[in-house]
Description:
Layout: H1 22-34, E1 47-51, E2 54-57, E3 62-65, H2 68-71, H3 80-90, H4 104-116, E4 123-128, H5 131-146, E5 150-154, H6 163-167, E6 186-189, H7 203-217, E7 223-228, H8 244-254, E8 258-262, E9 286-289, E10 300-305, H9 306-309, H10 325-340, H11 343-358, H12 361-364, E11 368-374, E12 377-382, H13 392-404, E13 407-408, E14 418-421, H14 429-448
Parallel strand pairs: 3-13, 5-6, 5-7, 7-8, 8-9
Antiparallel strand pairs: 1-2, 2-3, 4-10, 9-10, 11-12, 12-14
Helix pairs in contact: 3-10, 4-10, 7-8, 11-14, 13-14
The chain binds pyridoxal-5'-phosphate.
Organism: Herbiconiux moechotypicola
Family: Belongs to the class-III pyridoxal-phosphate-dependent aminotransferase family.
Keywords: Pyridoxal phosphate
Amino acid sequence: MASSTGFSVPQERKLVTELPGPKSRELHERRRAAVSRGAGTLADIYMDHGSGAILVDVDGNQIIDLGCGIGVTTIGHAHPEVAAAAAAQASKLTHTLFTVTPYDNYVKVAEKLAEITPGDFEKHSILVNSGAEAVENAVKIARKYTGRRVIATLDHAFHGRTNLTMAMTYRPWPERAGMGPMPGDIFSVPISYPFRDPEGMTGEEAAERTIDYIVTHIGATELAALFVEPIQGDGGVVIPAPGYFKRLSEFCTENGIVFVADEIQAGIARTGAWYSIEHHGVVPDLVTSAKGIAGGFPLAAVTGRAEIMDAVQPGGIGGTFGGNPVSTAAALAVFDIIERDGLIAEAQRVERAFVERIGDWPSRFPIVGEVRGKGAMFGVELVLPGTKKPHPEALKAIIQHAASQGVIVLDSGSWDSVLRFLPSVVISEALIDDAATVIEQKLAELSAA
Length: 449
Ligand SMILES: *Cc1c(COP(=O)(O)O)cnc(C)c1O
């Protein structure tokens, strides 16, 4: 089970100081004097090293990481083979700029992306530095290809923090507020959100609601692209009902609209498939990848139908560091590790472990409205007892309690009320059990209150 490489840190939680410990607190003082407040942190625990699903802080505490730096270290922290591949590349060639003089790693990553992304047709890729940059490029490509301007996103979407992508991100606070003007021609349209939709609404019915909104607010022939997260991440691990994306993608095809799956968070083996859109049985025109693609090195991509990807004139997309030799070397190692160690199956194992361990939370704790997820991507929707009203205070209290006990968990949701787990797919059942026990202490206390 898990990685055949073993772990350099025992896979167990161990606290040797209070959290944050003295060295973390000292660093935090220095940070306050030097780092922008805008880069907020979830837990002020400063990390030193990590292995597998465990992070070790500067005070020597071993912490269970159910966040992976928002779903990045899917294969485990500081994987030795990724480190070796990056180090070897760093001492060979660190930069040429692919669009000045190219190199093989970039081509190899593009070949691999063509292989693992859904769809049996010719696919081309562009490599960039970050998720938001991938989304921006997908917008440019879709506009150039269609000759249209308008972009639609789904309610509760998260697509990034750059000027264009913050306008494609649903909630105003904290991602957008006060930082306008927003770029135009971007519309948010209703999603399928089974927990919050009318009882019994099917995926097809939710899709008709989305389509009606597009037709009446935008006009189908005005729309260049529809961006969807097949499983929303920051939006609260929202998984649209079966049939929803199938109907939407048909509508896009019928109307010449580019269907873009933003797989930056849910892609690259995290949900028990290479890409989470596979669970919906849909083949998108374009796919964005980032977060988990290079084991922690910055790399992102847009991959899709060759005729769409080639619509842009040479020089129209790209950037200095995009597809950097070291990041692409790391990505090639990640692809190898996922295949050799069967990490897609490991993500499915993590899903079974979560379902078994926390699946009964809604019946045990009145503040838990729903537990949902795929693979190593789970959300726990917190509500005021007896209602579906969001319970953001509970989320805050749970995250703080967990961090103080050495368990890192993430927030999410438009109302800040969905606890989010994005652990490494190599996490053991024992660590899931330990982390769940810590969270249950607070769930019980809050449910009793
Ligand atoms: C994180 C994320 C982005 C933005 O990626 P960055 O690398 O932070 O710019 C875009 N889309 C989704 C779905 C994400 O989860």
